[in-house]
Amino acid sequence: MSTLTYVYADSTCVLGPLATYAEPHCYDLCAEHAERLTAPNGWEVIRLAPDPAAAGPSSDDLEALANAVREAARPLPPRTSGRPGSSSPGAPVEVARRGHLRMLQDPGNTAQDKSSGQG
């Protein structure tokens, strides 16, 4: 609901809209705890009211999400080796990739193994 940020140099607590990335000395709070927040003696609390228009996703956010879903759903072409530039005959064959994950086919796995149910 809200992000609490401590500014130690100014003895200030800033309670504002939920942050989109993590920073040191920042803590996300639910609505109940954000309402009940009190600061230590001598500290000031600054409450930033969230902009209601910015609360929902923008058209750019929705378009980026739709593009990411399309990209993830698109099948990837198989690659010919486990590593770029690797052409050794015993190297595993990369058959698919999703982000940092790769699916490799064992070079010793022949059509004979597949027909016997061991592949």
Automatic annotation (TrEMBL):
Residues 79-92 have a biased composition (Low complexity). Residues 107-119 have a biased composition (Polar residues). Residues 70-119 are annotated as: Disordered. InterPro entries: DUF3499. Pfam families: DUF3499. It comes from the Bacteria. This is Uncharacterized protein DUF3499. It comes from Kribbella caucasensis.
